[in-house]
Amino acid sequence: MLNKSDEEIRKSIKHFEESLPESERNPDTQEDTEHLIERAAQPPQPSIYAMTGKLQAQPGKRAVLVDILLRAAKVVSTLHGCRSYIVLEDVQDESAVWVFEMWDDKESHDVSLRDEKVRGLIAEAMPILAGAPSGSELRVAGGHGVNL
Fold first, then answer.
1. In this structure, are 70 and 27 located in the same domain?
2. Within this chain, do residues 27 and 10 fall inside the same structural domain, yes or no?
3. pLDDT tens per residue across span 94-114
4. Averaged pLDDT for residues 117-131
């Protein structure tokens, strides 16, 4: 059921649409407008925090790095807020490993970095790295396998 503000929005949009010349009106506008109003009426979804990182192992050390990261996956899987921790080997770069993580929120991820087991695995991986990791922080929009 629409509240007063929804009705006001609908009237404003209808007034705007009627002010356009017929040649500029989009027949799909009504459907798009209804979708946007319904979406706006829904409570905001929590924002799932995600990040991807690329780690470059020293030559011949990728398997060791992968082992450490797979152990990290087991550790973080037990921590509050961890939804996913995936370790990926780059098929074009024999030294590169990617990690994709999804967390309930950034705070859960940040708390995980203070866990003693996680800190130990980070310390174990550091000498194997050929340089500083790179990556990006991400906000999950949705998709297959993601429950928002």
1. no
2. yes
3. 999 999 999 999 999 999 999
4. 97
Q: Domain count for the chain, please give it.
A: 2
35, 91 Cβ separation under 8 angstroms:
no
Amino acid (one-letter) located at 19: S
136 three-class SS: strand
CA gap 20, 64 in Å, rounded: 65
User: Range of 23's domain?
Assistant: 4-41
94 shares its domain with 110: yes
| 145 vs 116, residue with greater confidence | 116
CA distances from 127 to 30, 53, 58, 85, 113 (A): 59, 17, 9, 22, 18
Cβ atoms of 103 and 49 closer than 8 Å: yes
CA atoms within 13 A on the CB side of 27: 0
**Token code pair at residue 125:** 């991986």
Indicate if 23 and 85 belong to the same structural domain: no
Global pTM reads 0.69
